Amino acid sequence: MSHEVSPFPLRESGSSEFERSALFAELKERVHEHLLQRIEELGAEFARWNHAAIAQFVLIELDGYTRQNSIAINEQEALLIARALTRELTGMGPLQDLLEDPAVEDILINGHDNVYVSRRGVLVREIVRFKDNEHIMRIVRRILAPLGRRLDESSPMVDARLPDGGRINVVIEPLAIDGPSVSIRKFRKDPLMPADLVKLGAFNEDICRILEMAVQSRCNILVSGGTSSGKTSLLNALTSFIPSTERIVTIEDTAELSLNHEHVVRLESRPGSYDGTGLVSIRDLLRNSLRMRPDRIIVGEVRGGEVLELLQAMNTGHDGSMGTIHASSARECLYRAEMLAGFAGFQGSEISLRRQIANAVDFIVQIGRLPNGRRRLISLTEITGMTDNVIATQELFRYESYVDGNGQEQDRWVSLGIAPHSSKLQNWWRLQQQHAATGGHHGA
């Protein structure tokens, strides 16, 4: 993605109407074909040009083409077409604006004329259009080419990490019925810290203090939530509480975590080749990480048999480990961990599996995306042991919104006033109570 100064002025209001017009689409297509012919004539010389030179070339060729064919467009319309064509030749075409927009979190393409983006958790349809499905494929291949990933009829799905840390998932025919399905998850250049999440209203300062002490006291934590609820962002923020003297090993399918820490080893799984060879799974990496002298093991997402290795690590001296898991509540999180362990071939009884989970996990942090797009910590739940062969829990905080006198919905987290059960936190909790009793300030 080029950072050179563009010769094109910023988009003016009202320009989107022209960009949606048939004239814009037709003229852009015709001039694009003309440019491809000229580039072929230039050969290797074109390949040496920088972004500014290509932009100037497009302007000159567009001006000559419109004059030769007596096409009546004004200067602003010509600049818009030239801008779009330059991005076709040097960048990501119709996606370029969205990729550069810091407010955009996800870009979802469902065929050439159906593009959605997520901003602040809310999906909206965009005016961005591709000429046809082949146009999408040209852009996708341009993105995948440096990554060395294959995408064709024999391998119609690909999931890859982008150079900037984002993620792209593509499904094409014959699996995608209505044209290529492209999902791009963008990467924040400045990962959110706990203080940022408090400021954004994801949780309050009381919860932040407990989370800080839970991490520093080496409690094992699972961050649970649905798709696009903010699990990875929260996990990334929690790792900022880990002391700088500790060694962290992160394990992910697609590396998304960006830890602000001195000593981090980042591991990423590898999909198998077309014939199935070369596969390295999360489970393989987790087993190997135990031989790497980790102080903490962070699993980006627990979704398969690796749950067994993570539980064993938590139970055998690797306290302070963390991971995310797809689940709609703290109780569902426990059920899912049981189910995944069962699928992975756990040999013991149901009760012994539950006992392993209860001994391994200290806290479940449930996060959710509300209908208005806001991401909020829904509950902070502690695992307290086993009762009647069922994993016992206690909820320390619960999210309950309310409507104020002006009819506006406000956030509120209700503390149930229960002391943490974990021995790792008991000394800290006693200090908190003493501070409260003497009118002092809470502090970690």
From TrEMBL:
Molecular function terms from GO: ATP hydrolysis activity
Family annotation (SUPFAM superfamilies): P-loop containing nucleoside triphosphate hydrolases
Bacterial type II secretion system protein E domain mapped to chain residues: 89-366
Domain of life: Bacteria
Pfam families: T2SSE
InterPro entries: P-loop_NTPase, T2SS/T4SS_dom, T4SS_GSP_E_ATPase
Entry's family note: Belongs to the GSP E family.
Name by which UniProt lists this protein: Pilus assembly protein CpaF
